[in-house]
Design a protein that fits this description.
The protein contains ten helices and three strands. The chain is mainly alpha-helical. The chain is globular.
């Protein structure tokens, strides 16, 4: 069979997380609370940074954009997952599946690059403080943000270009609660071994390589911080530890899922997918606010105005 015109599958059946009605109710309550908290928490960070002139700096500019991206990450799969908990037949159309994969990898790829940009920002601030304001100008920050979104878009489109015309003529069940490339190409009526390697290279190896670069970069910055005995060292260490925690939370599940593209342990992969799509965006506001005195003070000023 050749070409997408011979495709006879118009929708995919998602097996979801569980078939137990009692567990589905508990998951509905848990996911709904976490999703609402995620959206409100990240929105609070954005509003706090916009409203407080004390936070109008490159670090908080990128933090606000990270919160916006986390809202997008959480919204690509979570609302449908919650909705499907009450559907006996959980389906998604072929076009809907492709659209979901596009947005998942666009915002995911953008966040991956943004975390690297945030590491670069901390490197300049700590290792080259005298050049910080000139190096990280508003124009530079906006340009770096545009680069992050451009790379995220290319990352997504580069994979979609190879799978959008795959023929589907047989099984249409995905043992998941959302669409993603590994399971999508596995159902195609074609030899997809090459595409499987493409997914590994584009998502898995890039995630692993970026994670290693970030950890090495932050380790170098930490060594630089420890060489200074100034009062700002503890503040820098607190900020860096928050960044490193977010990096581990974001890249850990990605590396496991995409380096092993055709899972043999679906329950583990579902847990990692939930962690990446819901728990990490929920944890980011907590990590950045609880460990950041400036954010807590700014939030108190914001609530004082309200």
């Amino acid at each position: 069979m050749d070409g997408g015109n011979h495709s006879v599958v118009s929708e995919f059946l998602l097996l979801g997380l569980t078939s137990s009605w009692e567990i589905q109710i508990l998951l509905f309550l848990f996911f709904t609370i976490i999703y609402i908290a995620t959206m409100l928490g990240n929105l609070l960070i954005v509003l706090t940074i916009i409203s407080d002139h004390h936070l109008h700096s490159p670090m908080y500019f990128f933090l606000a954009n990270l919160s916006l991206i986390d809202m997008g990450v959480s919204s690509t799969a979570t609302p449908k997952m919650v909705y499907d908990l009450f559907r006996k037949r959980k389906v998604i159309s072929l076009k809907g599946c492709i659209t979901q994969m596009f947005f998942i990898h666009t915002v995911g790829g953008t966040e991956m690059v943004l975390l690297m940009v945030m590491a670069y920002d901390r490197y300049i601030a700590i290792c080259k403080p005298l050049h910080y304001l000139t190096t990280m100008s508003l124009r530079t920050c906006v340009s770096l943000l545009a680069v992050a979104w451009t790379i995220g878009l290319i990352h997504s489109v580069a994979q979609l270009a190879f799978v959008v015309n795959l023929p589907f003529c047989g099984p249409n069940q995905m043992d998941s609660f959302y669409c993603d490339f590994p399971l999508f190409i596995k159902l195609a009526c074609a030899d997809t071994a090459g595409l499987g390697f493409l997914v590994i290279a584009n998502s898995g190896f890039i995630s692993m390589g970026t994670f290693i670069v970030l950890i090495v970069s932050y380790s170098f910055i930490l060594v630089t911080v420890r060489k200074h005995s100034s009062g700002g060292s503890s503040k820098a260490l607190s900020t860096l530890s928050a960044h490193i925690t977010v990096v581990v939370f974001f890249f850990g599940p990605c590396i496991v899922v995409y380096v092993r593209p055709f899972p043999t342990l679906p329950y583990i992969d579902k847990f990692l997918a939930i962690f990446d799509a819901l728990i990490t965006p929920f944890m980011n506001p907590i990590i950045y606010t609880f460990r950041n005195k400036e954010m807590k003070v700014a939030m108190r000023r914001l609530f004082g105005k309200v």
